[in-house]
Amino acid sequence: MICPNCNKEIKDGSKFCIFCGANVQSQSNARNDVQNNAQSVQPQVNTPQYNQPQQSVSAQSQNPQFQPNNFQPAGVNQGVFVQPAKPKKPMNKKLLFGIIGGACALLIIIIVSLVLVANHKTKINLSDYIKVSYDGYDAYGTASVEFDYDKYLDDLMKASSSFKKAYNSDMTCKNLYDSDITWSSIADYYDAVDIDYDLDKTSGLSNGDTVTVNFEYDNDAAAQYKIEYVGESKEYTVEGLKETKKIDPFEGITVEFSGTSPNVSAKVVNNSKDEVYENIYYDLSKSYDIKIGDTITVTVSNDPEYFVEDYGCVFTSTTKDFKCTAVDQYVSKTADIKEDTLNAMKKQTEDVINSYFASDSKYIGVSDLKFEGTYFLTEKVDNSWSFNGTNQVYVIYSGKVKSNEEKKQFDETTVYFPVRYADIIEYADGTQYVDTKYASIEGETTLKYSYFSSVKGYTDKSAMYNDLVVAQKADYTEEITDGLK
């Protein structure tokens, strides 16, 4: 069949033209109705005969308006013939759907734009208001941070009209009696405007070090003013610190030890005349109760940071060790007693014993003196400054004691004579000294003579050991010659 709209051939029975989209059936039905109506009202008349001039085919073709079919005969008294109306061209559905889709898309774009505008927040980068400054000397520099609040508040007011209103009214407290202003709104304002910031390091800095500025803020509070803070941690490189002069604080420094080991004292001696060194002060790890061989640590007590600020100098070190040597010392063990020192004590012991018996020879006498050994006691470190001496040596002899009286008071008896010496010193030059002036016999026996007098010494070695050694164990350690316990 032929489409009545575009005159293209389409499939028989089609409802719509596949080329122009016209409703084929509705137009065909309309034409049929018009033709039927025209036929039903057509009058029957006698058509008059006219002598029509002969015209060539070419004349007809040159005058297309002159067509027999266009001739309306005269004498028709009823104008009931109706020219059929041209059918309306149907709407293109694809075009219709495109228009509707475009309108919907435009509406969505408008809605999204309105939402974005309504929710748009101006971003404020907090790093724009930060200034980090450095001061001091390299390795001891300091860093400080400043926040430009004036520019910060100015930018906030430019970014948000609601913030500007809050700043000019609520925060200046000019209109506190305004019903729109509450203390809650003031608190909200301060929550929004309050920015915390700090540096992770502020001292002990060197050129090239990095410091980090950290921020704390409340974007929920700022959202009421359509403001969003951007404040990620940011690193800054330290620069511009002044150079320092490096010095050895122990140049010209000595430690002076004095006294007798283990009771030596120490002090720092500064031999420098330089003003910088004269203003350096020192601490000692130990200043007394020092013994030979001990190591003393001297530490600079000045604050290096303040010293750099005052003199522009940095210490190459702050501690140094000094060993206690070449001082006098108390002998601390039997093996350290030199032979000539021991011989001097032995000779003095014999003299003391002989002198004692010589003074009472009318009543008592002694024979067969024999060196038995020694008790050597050394003062414990935790019990220094004992009244009995830093060290004690009991030089012990034995002898046979008899009664010289006419009537014998006791039988001949072996007696042990301990004679005490204290504080034996070895000088720094290696020589030793022992004071023998006050040596005397220790102890007393049960051997009686002359009006109830008793012979000095001990007849029982165990009793002698108990009285002279065991009784002093709390303060002294001992070395005992074999056979004397």
From TrEMBL:
Keywords recorded for this protein, A-Z: Membrane, Transmembrane, Transmembrane helix
Limits of the Zinc-ribbon domain: 3-23
Signal peptide range: none
Annotated spans, Disordered: 31-69
Bilayer-crossing regions: 95-118
Keyword Ribonucleoprotein: no
UniProt feature, compositional bias: Low complexity: 58-69
InterPro entries from the UniProt entry: Zinc_ribbon_dom (IPR026870)
Polar residues bias (residue ranges): 31-57
Pfam families: Zn_Ribbon_1
Coiled-coil residue windows: none
Keyword Membrane among UniProt keywords: yes
Protein name: Zinc ribbon domain-containing protein
Lineage of producing organism: Bacteria, Bacillati, Bacillota, Clostridia, Eubacteriales
